[in-house]
Amino acid sequence: MSDPSRPIRTAAVIPAAGRGVRLGPGTPKALRALGGTPMLVHAVRAMAASRAVSLIVVVAPPDGATEVDRLLHEYPLADRTDLVVVPGGQTRQESVRLGLAALPDTIDVVLVHDAARPLVPADTVDAVVAAVRAGAAAVVPALPLADTVKQVEPQPQGTPEPVVGTPERALLRAVQTPQGFDLETLRKAHDTVVEGEGATDDAGLVERLGAPVVVVPGHEEAFKVTRPLDLVLAEAVLARRRATDGYV
Ligand SMILES: Nc1ccn([C@@H]2O[C@H](COP(=O)(O)OP(=O)(O)OP(=O)(O)O)[C@@H](O)[C@H]2O)c(=O)n1
Ligand SMILES: C[C@](O)(CO)[C@H](O)COP(=O)(O)O
Question: Is the ipTM value over 0.90, yes or no?
């Protein structure tokens, strides 16, 4: 239990160790350029833009931590934000766990943010931090779905998949990052839930503990760069921001 008289300290862990297979062959996804600047740098700046965040831990490809550290030194942050780079693992869950292990005991609140969501607006980050600081143990930004969703019986490629249900769309949300947590709760979730139990995000691990998770509004520009078309959209959003907001 944290000491209530001590100021709350917030850190961000940025898993950036993935290859980006769905984006296609090339440099690891987080290091690919978006508007001439590595995607990871945009994600780091998005976390540093929140005044609450005093420490950022970047989880680099397992064999690339030194290179990532060198690269990030070329894009200095404001003095109030410390930056640490650690090597990641073979899965996102493992990479996040390694990032959490690098946090000092002075941290109370942690954000986990995909390097692959480089354009999340500062207001979304601040809303997640505020909800955790207000007492929620786990907070996820999310949006209502635009498409209808079907549950299917998966089949080998080329075989039509039988539909087994249509979940009520109004009850569904598409979940983004940064997800925010009371650090103790997230560490417990990562220590308890075994890899491969189907959790594709950190909040999913906390749900498996039986702890409450709440949703706050996400943002369209917090989308994940997963496939080539996402990169086209990201370039367009960035170009608009640079033309209208003086964004670098
Ligand atoms: N072993 C891994 C796998 C993923 N990630 C990170 O988790 C985030 C979300 O994952 P995703 O978009 O799925 O990235 P990739 O795993 O790189 O994508 P793909 O599945 O297409 O290879 C990314 O910032 C990615 O770098 C990570 O840190 N360590
Ligand atoms: C964490 C996440 O971005 C929330 O939407 C998502 O679950 C990551 O999934 P991926 O399969 O690693 O892209």
Answer: yes
Ligand 2 contacts CB of residue 113 (under 6 A):
no
Give the count of beta carbons closer than 10 Å to the beta carbon of residue 228.
Answer: 10
pTM for this predicted structure = 0.96
Give the pLDDT confidence of 183-222 residue by residue, as tens digits.
999 999 999 988 877 789 999 999 999 999 999 999 999 9
- Pair of tokens at residue 77: 């942050």
Q: Which residues of the chain have pLDDT under 50?
A: none
Residue with CA nearest ligand 2 atom 11 = 200
- Structural domains present in the chain: 10-141+173-245 (3.90.550.10)
Ligand 2 site, residue 224, Cβ cutoff 6 A: yes
- Quote the pLDDT of residue 132: 97
Say how many Å lie between the CA of residue 200 and the centre of ligand 2.
6
Report how far residue 134's alpha carbon sits from residue 22's, in angstroms, rounded to the nearest whole number: 37
Ligand 1 site: residues with CB under 6 angstroms? 15-22, 29-30, 59, 88-92, 95, 114-116, 224, 226
Give 125: exposed, middle or buried? Use CB within 10 Å, 0-12, 13-18, 19+. buried
